[in-house]
Amino acid sequence: MDSLIKITDLKKEFVNDEVVTKVLHGISFEISSGEFLAIMGPSGSGKSTLMHILGFLDKLTTGSYFFKGQDVADLAEEEMARIRLKEIGFVFQSFNLLPRTTVLDNVKLPLIYNPQAKEKERIEIATKALEAVGLSHRLEYSSSKLSGGEKQRVAIARALVNDPDIIFADEPTGNLDSKSGQQVMEVLEGLNDKGKTIILVTHEKDTAEHAERIIKLRDGLVVSDNRVGNRVSAKDHKELRK
Amino acid sequence: MVVGYFSMYLLDTYRLATKSLSSNRKRAALTMLGIIIGITAVIFIMSVGAGAQSLIINQIEGIGSNLIGILPGAADEEGPPVSVMGVLVTTLKYDDAKALENKSRLPHADSVAVYNRGVATVTWQNRSVDTSFIGTSASYLRVEDTQVTAGRFFSEEEERGIGRVAVMGYTTKQDLFGDHEAIGERIKINKESFTVIGVMEERGASGFENNDELILIPVSAAQKLLLGVNHLGFIRVRADASENIDQTIEDIEIVLRERHNIDNPEDDDFTVRAVAQAIEALTLITDALKFFLAAIAAIALLVGGVGIMNIMLVSVTERTKEIGLRKAVGATKSNVLTQFLVEAVILTLSAGVVGIIIGSAISALVAVVAQLLGYNWDLVISLQSILLACGVCIFIGLTFGYYPARRAAKLDPIEALRYE
User: How far is CA B148 from CA B145, B202, B311, in A?
Assistant: First the structure.
């Protein structure tokens, strides 16, 4: 499997009015394409900050970051936006759908910033993405009328439309009940089966158990990095609960 | 291909912008109000201004643009002589006018007519009408380019010889005689007897005068019988062609200075003006007025623009999370900037269109009312003013939308997504 992400001694500090806050103190690891990875840690461990940097929403302070073999540690904003558009899909804890907008239009959003597709194609792509998450019957619904689980699945569909290689999910089940949470994790697993790299950030053990590899952070440093062998699939989870 | 990409990008941004705007229609409408009022005012001012301008010019052109007016009394550069204001100046005489008929001195003067004006009570049998009269020459018809519809105009003998003959204006004839035949009837003008010999064609208003509400009598009769004067009110000369107007004006001035023993043009006791000049001067004045008023309307637009900026700033703040999301999924700074700029321009341009429609409607209303009142009012809604209005709207949208759009574009996606 190819090296997708390689970070070495990555450090991040925030400067606010001359007050320096060090959040990440030197993190190194490598992620290959097709992995299902969970980054765990308590509140304040820096996992969100790490995800933002890996997801090109923020830049590291020192260290190196190689993405698909290219040095991306110091890119211009426009380039970072382009990578976010084409290479990465984001799923957030609070869904972040556009209010007063239909499901279809929500999912189409990243396509609008991708000039290659025409409107007809966009509708096709968005519809397919919604089929992949099992929501093709909800195309014209207003996003505010959906349940939490449905909203998150719409968010996943949105993350898929530009066919990115990586999906970043920040506490994707945090605002969901356990049943919806299961559904969402099933969807993510299905995507991983199809070859997408999934990077999950969570503090919930149950959610992390769906991954094949767990990196634990504490106080801005990696404290463990373990493969958990074949991941516990969502279906198995249901069985275990019984 | 670049054009295709760019135009699709604009189309997308347009769709995006309209969607965002339509999701909060009330606010959009209120924001637009200032611009709507401003543009309505601009269109209305320019249209009514142009209408008033064309009304005035139509009036003056009614006199005929080859006409040259000679008034008693001096005047500075472009202003009117004092005689227009009512000051009595008695320096123009009948013989002056006759001298101007000399073809060897004034080869391009086609015809000359004299004028003495006054008001009188005209009586016929037991009816009476107050009307204005003009004591004039037999050449009146030629100079004024008009004709009688019944009877005849007076002759040169009658012009000179205190002929007690009168030609009635169209409306005065109606007022006094109704449908009764007027030719041959005896009337009294301020107790003096006259016989009606002709009736004028209907002419309408021109030069601020109503040409149908008057009586025309020989100048000698007017001067001796009614006014008791021996000076003229004014003289009109018709040039044979518009290119000869300037030459004829010069010729007139030379002859009159000779007759009045004037060596220095600054001592002229008369004023010679071509009607065309008056039109030019008026056009300049009314143009200036129009643009001045439009400038005031522009101030209203500026205020409207500030309103747009305010509302857009509020909108950007309210949509912070949304902007953060757009950036997270891959919108660049310029994507966001363009989106908000387009939203601002859509707001202002739509407001402009509404303003243009309302302004045009009000102007049309004014035109209809003016025409009903008998004024020769043209409804003028020029393409120029519409394009100007649209251009102004786009400019305001871009200018006052820029600051909010920049604020939106500069938002940090992470912080924006956290915003509550």
Answer: 11, 9, 68
